[in-house]
Amino acid sequence: MVRADYLAMKTDPVSPDLVSDDLNELMNVAKKLVHDAAKLGGLGFGTSFLKWVASFAAIYLLILDRTNWRTNMLTSLLIPYIFLSLPSGIFDLLRGDVGKWIAFVAVVLRLFFPRHFPDWLEMPGSLILLLVVSPGFFAHTLRGSWVGVAICLAIGCYLLQEHIRASGGFRNSFTQKHGISNSLGIILLMVYPVWALVIHFL
């Protein structure tokens, strides 16, 4: 006959309050983890994605202005906007030797072959020169701060109100020829800085 002997240990009874306190603490830690992960991953990804969208919208508006959108607006403000919102990978590439060679070729063409230097290359040439020669304060400190984002927002707001005024009102800016694409492009300029400022001050 097999006999099983069990060793009995006496322990203190577990208090339900201690268990609930531990569960509450675990829930708080989990909420903090999810919040921080969302802020670093999700919101950070959203900011970088919107930065790409804003840069391409600014380039798109610059191309429109150089081709068929000719307005009296100060579209040269798109150059500092692109400078401040350009994603880091492209910015670093154009600020390095690649950008220096492009700027060198642009300056040589402009100086020695002005007839072969088209008007539509003035703004991109200015952007390349700005990228290459800007001091470190503008290129690294101001560009990555909320001040640079606020400048982008101010440029977007100015261009939107100028576009609405040039179109003859808000309604006309969405109904005239090229109005919808231009208005949407300018609105996309404002989405990134608004989002970045909201994330910064959260």
From TrEMBL:
Family: Belongs to the Cold-regulated 413 protein family.
Membrane topology: Multi-pass membrane protein
Entry's transmembrane regions: 40-63, 75-94, 101-117, 137-160, 180-201
Location of this chain's protein in the cell: Membrane
Keyword annotations of the record: Membrane, Transmembrane, Transmembrane helix
Protein name, UniProt field: Uncharacterized protein
Organism: Kalanchoe fedtschenkoi (Lavender scallops)
One Pfam short name: WCOR413
InterPro entries: COR413
Taxonomy, superkingdom: Eukaryota
A single Gene Ontology CC term: membrane
